[in-house]
Amino acid sequence: MTSLSPDNRVEDAHPVEKAPTEEGTSANESEGTANTTNTTAVVPEKVPSAYNEQIVANTAKEAGEGELDFPDGGTRAWLVVLGTALSSTASFGYVNSWGVFQSYYEQTLLRTYSASTIAWIGSVQYMMVFLPAVLSGRLFDIGWFKIPYFAASVLCVVATILVAECTQFWHFLLCQGFGVGLACGMLYGPTVGVIGHWFKRRRGLAMGLTAVGSSAGGTFFPIAARKLIPLVGFPWTLRILGFILIFVLAIPNITLARRLPPKNLQGGIFNPRAFKNLAFTVYALASVMTYLGLYTVLTYIDISAVQVGVSEDFSFYLVSIANASSALGRIVAGLMVDKIGAVNYIAPMTFFAGILTYAWPFAKSEGSLIVIAVIYGIMNGTFVSSFLFPLFELGPLADIGRRTGMVMTLSAFGVLCGLPISGAINRQTGGFEAVGLYGGSVIVVAVGLMVLTRWLVLRRWWGRF
């Protein structure tokens, strides 16, 4: 059964069963390996002292399974970070280039369709990055990682090349929306779990460096697509991007690996017992609300710039500028989360993202739009790279894959609905002022839910969390 501790962290009282990995490792072999580790119970850092006794008990239980002996560095661990960074480049970074495709489709291949209709392709793509996380997270927990990851790598390349052959709206929706999105979701989902196996004390830094890969991809792919299309045409542009993805994904397929023994916690792929923890439920809702508005600026800043007279040759760079500046937000977030706590840093930075969403429609010049793109990129990168961190504190590490997968899957519905809602508002009003009001408001409400989560955990409005 699952019970709540006084600080709303989940304590799982079910017996833990070892599950075979895809390589055939037996449960007995896993136990034999685990028994060689140091079993000294250590009180984790960053936990309020009032709850130390409970955490010590949980930690002692996990210590016998090798979960306390984290490398937190070394050649092998940093090779894992290299793999996760490149995985983010080919998944989240690639998907974050959607704004350029939206603009291109509106002006050429799908010009007979409305902006909100075309936005469904991007929304489905973003949604599919999050939706499979509940499956990939569960597979990761029970030991299945390498085979699903390789299959997703193949699908990502094949779907990208197939986009080159698309001519109808439903072609793009199927290949770029569902195909590329599903592949990127299966690639990105397990990366949080992999980092959790190799890092603890420096987990924030490792995740920050991982997220830099997303910024690199979000910067490179839009520029590459925009420059290649006039030179070689749209079909060959997508084929070239597919070949680039082969190289980028080859490295993580070699370097990424699980370290800890697999565990088969009861509850299935989706564990509804987790929602008995009110703090977990509120934080999951905060994530959904944030993603209802978070990608509004990144998707429409290119189009809004053209509408106010900025040249098309320059406007497409705004997406790349935002994605490039997000690298700074991701790195700093990784450092600050380790120092002051995840929500303590994520909440104010996300609040500023909401304020900038309000301000974006009123930027009417190249200079003001660049300022918006740079600052918004930093705020956006902070949330995207760090919003899963609080989940490490809301349950046992053995269940982290499923727990993060559940939140990402729920967030997918926010991503799915956010862009079409923004497109519909733009169509009805003829401008982006109301779009900014919608996007900024849902983000600000989400920040309020993050602060409420902190209170539910600590039972006070301020503290390390």
Number of helices in the DSSP assignment: 19
Strand/helix succession: EEHHHHHHHHHHHHHHHHHHH
Largest sheet features: 2 strands, antiparallel
What is the β-strand count?
2
Whole-angstrom Rg: 22 Å
β content, as a range?
A: under 5%
User: In terms of structural class, how would the helical and strand content be classed?
Assistant: mainly alpha
Polypeptide structure, described:
- This protein is mostly helical and 465 residues long.
- Helices cover 70% and strands 1% of the residues.
- It has a single domain, classed as MFS general substrate transporter like domains (Growth Hormone, Chain: A).
- A two-stranded antiparallel ribbon has the order 1-2.
- Residues 23-32 have a biased composition (Polar residues).
Please give a handful of descriptors for the protein shown.
disordered N terminus, 465 residues, globular, MFS general substrate transporter, Growth Hormone, Chain: A, mainly alpha, 70% helix, MFS_trans_sf
Brief write-up:
The chain has 19 helices and two strands.
Which helices and strands appear, and what pairs or packs with what?
Elements: E1 2-4, E2 10-12, H1 27-34, H2 52-63, H3 75-95, H4 98-107, H5 115-130, H6 133-141, H7 146-163, H8 169-188, H9 191-198, H10 203-232, H11 234-255, H12 278-293, H13 296-307, H14 312-315, H15 317-340, H16 342-359, H17 366-386, H18 400-429, H19 433-458
Antiparallel strand pairs: 1-2
Helix pairs in contact: 3-8, 3-9, 3-10, 3-11, 4-5, 4-13, 5-8, 5-18, 6-18, 7-8, 7-11, 10-11, 10-15, 10-17, 12-18, 12-19, 13-15, 13-17, 15-16, 15-17, 16-17, 16-19, 18-19
